[in-house]
Design a protein that fits this description.
By secondary structure, the protein is α/β, with parallel strands linked by helices. Helix content is about 30%, strand content about 20%. The longest helix has 18 residues, at about 305-325.
Length: about 375
């Protein structure tokens, strides 16, 4: 049997989480059109059966990471650290590039017939506010952002600098190929392969599942022999409480705009599972939505609580699908000024730290004998 960890990295909005969900066949990671939707490393586990005379059975542990972007807050720096951590413990790296964006590098004369000398950065697509992740709208085609010496003006250059430091195979995965003509792929592949000697170049469309079988086959070929890291029927390492919090945050991202999604965090405060003998099982969940300013709280709540109700309704339906029970979901909004710059607060959002805290709380709870005394 083969097994190994496969790190997935790329710029924001390249479709990392969409690809992960398509490969696992499960809702492992939340997906929205907004940049920086992913904040934590998320594992998705894929089992591939053996094929006689063709391949061994394998367990692929995909590690989805936050999009590589300029860190403007402690939250951003923590997200970038998640990328570095994923690259430290991996057997293979997938570098995802959105083919609908043009990525000219300094040594490239032309990409798809357009001049690029002396330029770096994105030619087309959203012009991001790199500190917050908010977008200021699309730039017209042909617009190029020039790199300043020693700056992060070209995050594409920074992305490629990360993979140049690894000592394992690196695949270039071109995403969203259903959105461009095939004759546009070759110039882009030519430009990108001059940046790094990729072991494989694989175009895919996660939405149409085009190229996914080829991707899995090529991954299995390079994985080392090993044992399963997770039980055969497990598709992620995330606890249910964290997945519930993420589904609530996904609903916030969908229902709100401007700066609110990037200033919002969700913490599940109570998660009460139904009793085993309940005829109509009901899971009771209480969660807090944190934001940074009173104005953001007003937007999240909406007139007469209308927006919070929309967020809750959308999240509840997804949570019920995840849990397989009816769900009573109670949400409330708390203002925590500047939480994205608070190391302590950002650390508590990590589900691994939340599990440790829950274990400590349970260990410190008095037993029946102690209460009686």
């Amino acid at each position: 049997m083969k097994s190994g960890f496969v790190a997935i990295i790329g710029r924001p909005n390249v479709g990392k989480s969409t690809l992960l969900n398509a490969l696992t066949g499960e809702k492992v990671a939340i997906v929205t059109a907004k940049p920086q939707t992913t904040r934590n490393r998320i594992l998705g586990v894929v089992e591939t059966p053996a094929r006689k005379g063709q391949r061994q059975a394998a367990q692929i542990v995909f590690v989805d990471t936050p999009g590589v972007h300029k860190p403007g807050t402690h939250l951003d720096r923590r997200m970038l650290q998640e990328v570095h951590d994923a690259l430290e413990s991996r057997d293979l790296v997938l570098v995802l590039v959105d083919v609908t964006r043009r990525i000219p590098f300094e040594d490239e004369r032309k990409i798809a017939g357009r001049e690029t000398r002396g330029t770096t950065g994105l030619e087309a697509g959203g012009a991001s506010d790199l500190g917050t992740g908010a977008t200021s709208g699309p730039e017209p085609r042909g617009t190029l952002r020039t790199a300043r010496s020693g700056s992060w003006a070209s995050e594409d250059e920074f992305l490629f600098s990360l993979v140049r430091k690894v000592d394992c195979p690196v695949f270039l995965v071109l995403t969203k190929i259903d959105l461009i003509r095939k004759d546009e792929l070759l110039p882009l592949i030519d430009a990108l392969t001059k940046q790094y000697n990729f072991a494989q170049v694989i175009p895919v469309s996660a939405r149409k599942r085009d190229g996914l079988d080829v991707l899995v086959e090529k991954i299995v070929e390079v994985l080392p022999a090993g044992q399963r890291y997770f039980p055969k029927d497990q598709y992620t390492d995330q606890p249910v409480r964290f997945m519930v919090a993420e589904l609530i945050r996904e609903s916030i991202l969908i229902e709100t705009g401007e700066e609110v999604p990037y200033a919002a965090a969700v913490v599940v405060e109570e998660f009460i599972e139904p009793e085993p003998k309940e005829k109509s099982p009901l899971t009771r969940i209480m969660a807090a939505i944190y934001c940074e300013r009173g104005g953001q709280k007003a937007i999240l709540i909406g007139k007469g609580g209308s927006k919070l109700k929309e967020i809750g309704t959308g999240a509840r339906r997804k949570i019920e699908s995840l849990l397989g029970t009816r769900v009573y979901l109670e949400l409330h909004v708390i203002v925590e000024p500047g939480w994205r710059e608070s190391r302590a607060f950002v650390e508590q959002l990590d589900w691994r730290n939340q599990i440790e805290k829950l274990a400590e709380d349970q260990a410190n709870e008095p037993t029946g004998d102690e209460e009686a005394s």
